[in-house]
């Protein structure tokens, strides 16, 4: 834990522009937001345009996982993102600056231009039979069409479900089928560096072959590579848009109507479809880097220093704990000691940032997400579920009261929603993260306390990776744990037991990696595979991951109590075979 503190005055952040310009101002407003959350959030909601005001600000019950905000109110998220700015005379302001794969490739859209594109695509959706409440899967890289498609869905009340462009055909298929999407929006091939070698349309074709709910596939021409085209099902984006009308009234939506589904990895089984609701606006990923930082730092300073950084105002990080050396490099070299680093902590489930420094107000400590955002009440619980008072404190990071962005359910599986977030500590939202609160009240996220890995800022459930490894015909059983990795934050260490008669070889190892790429995607490829005759299990058959974690981390001096293992000699074999 770093002890350096960087007061806001040490940065050149233009304090005159700040909404919150001192730590005292933050503390006062934070206290108000916690004392009267309904008044606080009602004031925030007043900033949106409502067709009809709400009856009740907040109504929630963390025991039954029932959460409602602004019930009775009606609005449209797309209208609030675009129309109202255009109507207020800001149509010429820039809404999107898109940079492609090379610095020479970019596009900008003003609010008016974006609104026109969104209305046109909303008409394409309608013409192809998409109605309010239907699910639309979006499997695209970061291209402007992604934002246009999201907003168009919101405009007509369709529910969008975005699947990360690097996922495999099977991952895509499972997500489409889980929420029975009617349409898929994808692109021909995807760029990675200078090459267009991710076959997204081909992946989409393979997925859709096993997705009975998909009626139409819209294809964005990104690279111009030749792809298979099924004329009775597939539609080129540019052709459909050429004929589309640019008039489309937004649908009047209830505040609690669904807006989007976002799948994320959990500690067990298949990914969860997190449901977010209409009054929550689209999240914009303004300049965030996390894992990239470690990779960039290794390349030396010249790559950064050869570019003009004078227009940078502040720097963001998200997704994983950042260590002091990287923080200092980011601050000193990239930000030239002028730019505050805004380390934001949040989760797919939270629908927005829950902890963050405020650039002009919060003295920074390298590696800490600092303090809670307004209206967010973090608590630290011990094993028994008691709130740990005072500072310093460590334990499970939980949130005590509901905020508007929190997910509402796991799509189609409310029990799983309760099991994952609310049952371990009744009455609290359990984040799954461990945390330390230091003597000054700063929060330091220490990483996941459940079986979720964080590889290069991507969440993967150990069960998901184990399932993919198990698809290889030679594999009898697998257990996966994370270990510290210089670049990725966490690497994937897989322990694999083979079927009787099979023996470990480079071919089997390559085959296992291939199976994981095919079933999940390259991001989940194990970094290390250790073949082992058996896994350490308790007498009741539960794998003791604690031991596997220690061996993977190289911390074999104290493996703790192994007396409850069905066969304690397994551990020796594991230690000997360590990779
Ligand atoms: C981790 C990505 C430390 C954490 C935003 C959380 C972080 C998980 C931070 C959510 C941060 C996110 N510092 N750890 N600033 N931000 N995390 O849903 O473990 O992909 O639970 O959302 O990332 O991952 P998710």
From TrEMBL:
One of its GO terms (biological process) is acetyl-CoA biosynthetic process. Residues 464-542 form the AMP-binding enzyme C-terminal domain. Residues 88-284, 290-408 form the AMP-dependent synthetase/ligase domain. Pfam families: ACAS_N (PF16177), AMP-binding (PF00501), AMP-binding_C (PF13193). It comes from the Eukaryota. Its EC number is 6.2.1.1. PROSITE patterns: AMP_BINDING. GO terms for molecular function: acetate-CoA ligase activity; ATP binding. Keywords: ATP-binding, Ligase, Nucleotide-binding. It is an enzyme of class 6 (ligase). Belongs to the ATP-dependent AMP-binding enzyme family. This is acetate--CoA ligase. The lineage of its organism: Eukaryota, Metazoa, Porifera, Demospongiae, Heteroscleromorpha.
